[in-house]
Design goal:
This protein is of the alpha/beta class. The protein contains 9 helices and 11 strands. 38% of the residues lie in helices and 21% in strands.
């Protein structure tokens, strides 16, 4: 049987491997057809320098998503992944798309990567972040916030300990929560914390100094791909974290300011590195 398609809704950059560029590459490398929908088009990641922003009008974006959900090929779709969204109207359109597709296909998985900010604070308007919190998080089956985003979504400060991160993750309205950049007992380490109703698992690894952008986008896409391939949660967390760690490690060795996914595709499929897991259930 052919693999189900994944709708990926996020930012697009001409140069680099973030947003849709990272997610689409990862999912296609894992063998999944992708329906890619850009929310904003940029020459490069805005962390490098200011640049031109191209955003479709609200009506155009809504009509585009309406065409997608009413297309004659919608039965090909097995999952939806949303990332960076440019404004509240885009959030509303994505919520409508997800609701309508899931109403027709209850098995369609929805992963919301709430790309709203980092330890420096929000990097999108608060109104847009609040719309993601209120309209998309309640719809998603999986969410992959970093620890700043986890705290913000609950109107809390950023969690500073593993115990606090677990407590916050259990409060989110999502079946599965993977918190990236989770704190550990070792200040030189970080990790991905998986929480659902029965399991709490930490995949930790050494921190990188000033890593390239994109590991969050990559984590969400790789995890979703393995989920669709029926890989169990614990093994999925291990493989996903190992893949992203290996790709970051390779980028660091090259002194690159971007992830080189075209060179590291094998790390997405079968990483040589394996991260150790700790069961905290």
């Amino acid at each position: 049987m052919p693999k189900k398609a994944v709708i990926v809704i996020s930012s697009h950059v001409a140069r680099g491997s973030v947003g849709n560029r990272a997610a689409v590459f990862a999912l296609e490398t894992l063998g999944f057809p992708v329906w890619a929908i850009p929310t904003i088009t940029l020459p490069w990641h805005p962390g490098h320098s200011p640049s031109t922003r191209v955003v479709a009008s609200d009506n155009e974006f809504s009509s585009f998503l309406n065409d997608i959900q009413n297309s004659p090929w919608i039965d090909e779709v097995g999952a939806i992944l949303s990332g960076y969204l440019a404004n509240p109207k885009q959030v509303k359109a994505v919520a409508n798309l997800v609701s309508n597709i899931k109403a027709k296909n209850q098995d369609c998985a929805y992963l919301c990567d709430p790309v709203i900010g980092d330890l420096g604070g929000l990097y999108i308007p608060q109104e847009t972040a609040a719309a993601i919190r209120d309209k998309l998080i309640p719809l998603c089956d999986i969410t992959t916030p970093n620890r700043f985003e986890l705290g913000w979504l609950l109107d809390q400060e950023t969690p500073q300990t593993i115990e606090q991160t677990i407590d916050f993750a259990n409060q989110l309205k999502s079946e599965k929560v993977i918190t990236t950049s989770c704190p550990t007992e070792n200040s030189n380490e970080t990790g991905n914390l998986f929480c659902n109703s029965s399991k709490i698992i930490l995949a930790k690894h050494a921190k990188f100094n000033d890593p390239p952008n994109g590991p969050g986008d990559l984590t969400a896409a790789i995890y979703l791909g393995h989920l669709l391939s029926k890989i169990p949660d614990e093994e999925n967390l291990n493989i996903t974290t190992s893949s992203v760690f290996e790709i970051l490690q390779n980028a660091t060795k090259r002194s690159s300011d971007e992830l080189a996914l075209e060179s590291d595709a094998q790390s997405i499929v079968k990483p040589d590195t394996r991260i150790s897991l700790t069961d905290l259930s």
